[in-house]
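How a chain folds remains the central question behind the approach discussed here. The record that follows shows the chain in one-letter code together with its fold in token form:
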Amino acid sequence: MKLFFSKTIHLLQSKEFSFSNPDVVHTILAIIFLAFALLHLLRVDRFKYWSWLVSPASSRQRDWLNSLGEKWYSRLMAVVFAAFGLLILYLTWYF
């Protein structure tokens, strides 16, 4: 078991492994942000097993949901996630 963990750590730290490249990690994070934006636009909270992905987590988000309504809350969160995702992509690949 120790050999497995040491080999895994060595692989993660090696130059050949793609996750050691920060550009790849930033691109994956940006894609995750853009996926959450798409999930909010599609309003997957209406489906039974997908609602936990986009449900408001904090009390401030719940207040926004109650004051804006589901439609505008999902659009607002989609814009926020898309902005962060596109900003990460822009800063990673154009600087």
Residues 46 and 54 are 10 Å apart (CA to CA).
